[in-house]
Q: What sequence folds into this?
């Protein structure tokens, strides 16, 4: 019996996912059982994988708490259900959302990734005391204050049209971090066609007015487009990976 990372009880641990399994499954279905994995600026090539980056981490009740309280709703919203979506030139507006649940979902992905032993989450970490503070908020279903961690959501596009929207939704990349200021970092996740950037500690109040910043009170979220080639870490990984892809005689297609 091992200790659950969330509640600390000794239990049979579940094979826990940080990025939800359903996003991997969607890719596997559309891509003959394989996800395209793009490394986050590392030295590994783009490769196909059927691993969904899970490790033994949580007991079954913590696992179901995260799934039922945060994940189920958020997956629906990210797939455009249970809210009204309006597309416009600069992005997509999600109307009628429950900000608190979405914030808790993204932070729960972040927290699980930071506390995962899976090598693909190697670059994600949350220093103390924030790690413990986030854990206790998640388990008690309390809202996560924006000064503890702030979530910013962008929608991926590709103006060169090299990638279709469907293939953008089929990209999961190893999370990477950015240094945003002295001793301050953000952690970036790409899944289901979104770039999710999480700042911990959170953004200052004046910085939270930018597009895509999700708050606990948010009911209408305007998600800006971001061109995939304007994400420097992504471009690096793809240029490098693409070269190896061609060498390996595999075509990069959706
Ligand atoms: Zn537990």
A:
């Amino acid at each position: 019996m091992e200790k659950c990372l969330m509640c600390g009880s000794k239990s049979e641990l579940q094979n826990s996912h940080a990025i939800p399994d359903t996003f991997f499954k969607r890719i596997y279905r559309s891509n003959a059982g394989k996800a395209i994995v793009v490394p986050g600026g590392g030295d590994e090539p783009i490769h196909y994988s059927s691993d969904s980056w899970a490790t033994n981490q949580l007991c079954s009740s913590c696992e179901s708490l995260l799934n039922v309280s945060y994940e189920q709703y958020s997956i629906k919203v990210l797939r455009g259900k249970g809210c009204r979506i309006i597309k416009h030139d600069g992005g997509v507006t999600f109307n009628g959302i429950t900000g608190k649940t979405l914030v808790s979902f993204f932070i729960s992905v972040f927290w699980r990734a930071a506390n995962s032993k899976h090598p693909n989450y190697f670059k994600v970490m949350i220093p103390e005391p924030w790690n413990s503070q986030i854990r206790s908020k998640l388990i008690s279903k309390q809202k996560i204050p924006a000064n503890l961690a702030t979530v910013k959501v962008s929608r991926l596009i590709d103006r060169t049209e090299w990638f279709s929207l469907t293939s953008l939704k089929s990209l999961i990349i190893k999370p990477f971090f950015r240094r945003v200021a002295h001793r301050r970092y953000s952690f970036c996740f790409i899944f289901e066609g979104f770039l999710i950037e999480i700042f911990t500690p959170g953004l200052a109040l004046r910085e939270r007015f930018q597009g895509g910043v999700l708050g606990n009170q948010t009911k209408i979220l305007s998600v800006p487009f971001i061109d995939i080639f304007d994400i420097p870490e992504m471009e690096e990984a793809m240029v490098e990976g693409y070269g190896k892809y061609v060498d390996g005689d595999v075509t990069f297609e959706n």
